[in-house]
Amino acid sequence: MKLLILGSNGQVGHCLAEQAESKGFDFSATNSSQLDITDFQKVRQTVESVNPTIVINATAYTNVEKAEDEPEKAFEVNSDSVGNLARICSQKNIPLIHISTDYVFDGTREGYYKETDTVNPINAYGRSKLAGETAVAENTDKYVILRTSWVFGRHGKNFVKTMLNLFRSRDELTVINDQIGGPTFAGDIASAILKIAEVLDDTPDFSEWGIFNFSGKEDVSWYEFAKSIYESSRKEQLITKDVSIRPIPASMFKTKAARPLNSKLDLSRIKSVFNISASDWKSEIDNNIEYYLQ
Ligand SMILES: NC(=O)c1ccc[n+]([C@@H]2O[C@H](COP(=O)([O-])OP(=O)(O)OC[C@H]3O[C@@H](n4cnc5c(N)ncnc54)[C@H](OP(=O)(O)O)[C@@H]3O)[C@@H](O)[C@H]2O)c1
Fold first, then answer.
1. DSSP code of 150?
2. Ligand 1 neighbours (beta carbon < 6 A)
3. Which of the residues 103, 113, 125, 143 is marked catalytic?
4. Does some domain include residue 285?
């Protein structure tokens, strides 16, 4: 098996390259300065020269707020380029593993979202990612799309690092308590993707192509997630002063982009097809919080 990993400087892409290396996989990885995913010709040339057995796309335009001001850029990276990549993969009969988001949903459902539930994104980023899912499905048959949520990794910007910085600089802060979702460790997304790649490689007649949810459990609010980060950082003495964290509704926290109130994902499909279990976000926070302090 030979992997081509695109976007190796992102939270997930970095973990993918790191784990592929440590597991001794044959792989080639490109970051945004080596390969711009919007350069259709260069993407084709790269796939042709690397000649991978599986392509993994970890590139994305992920700035949810900025996407409201420049949706065309979000669509260029998250949809047009993904369609082009899927077309190339299809022509060369190479399976494509792509990553999508809980933000394809509007969050009004009660309970857990299944892969087949109605999509209805409520911000520009979510619309661009949904267009990317559609572009994959329209251009190739052999694809796995992993829909994930609330990603945090040791490499890159994320909520965990933002909270740690705020705990250091503030004595009190407010955090949203009515948006519920599954924080997902980037390292667990990478492990899941590499496991999927191995299954695809070992199963020539694989037929369960399509969308798979993958997230951390237990689902929590941002406020509960912040409290966990705080407790771990106090326990490890990374933060040595008291910080008062107060819950507030999303309606009191003004943002350009609306976000779904419910992002809880049902993980039964990925368990039954690939035997992959939920990301254990709490263990990563409890055991490795020091890696997030910058
Ligand atoms: N972050 C989340 O909370 C979250 C939640 C749900 C789903 N997801 C999805 O999970 C996947 C991985 O997200 P992540 O958190 O790892 O994102 P990330 O850290 O923002 O990484 C995305 C990577 O894509 C690269 N990129 C952007 N535009 C590019 C272009 N034109 N050509 C080549 N590379 C380009 C970026 O390059 P630079 O390094 O130059 O910026 C960055 O390294 C994405 O599909 C995302 O939509 C993320």
1. S
2. 7, 9-13, 32, 36-38, 58-62, 77, 99, 101, 129, 148-151, 156
3. 125
4. no
Nearest CA to ligand 1 atom 25: 59
Which CATH number goes with the domain that contains 140?
A: 3.40.50.720
* Helix pair angle (186-202, 11-22), 10° resolution: 50
pLDDT at 128 over 80: yes
Residue 65 located in a structural domain: yes
Report the C-alpha gap between 169 and 172 in whole angstroms.
9
Confirm whether 252 is domain-assigned.
no
Average pLDDT, the chain: 97
Tell me the H-state helices in the chain: 11-22, 40-50, 64-67, 71-75, 81-91, 124-139, 159-169, 186-202, 222-235, 268-274, 281-288
Q: If you take atom 18 of ligand 1, which residue's CA is the nearest one? A: 10
> Is residue 293 one of the residues assigned to a domain?
no
Residue 130 pLDDT level (bands cut at 50, 70, 90): very high
Q: How many domains is the chain built from? A: 1
Q: What is the pLDDT of residue 294?
A: 76
What's the rounded mean pLDDT across residues 166-176? 97
Ligand 1 pocket test, candidate residues 4, 62, 152, most atoms within 8 A of CB: 62
Whether residue 78 is predicted with pLDDT greater than 80 in this model: the reply is yes
Boundaries of domain holding 100: 2-157+183-218+265-279
User: From the CA of 54, how far away is ligand 1's center (Å)?
Assistant: 19
Active site (annotated) includes residue 125:
yes
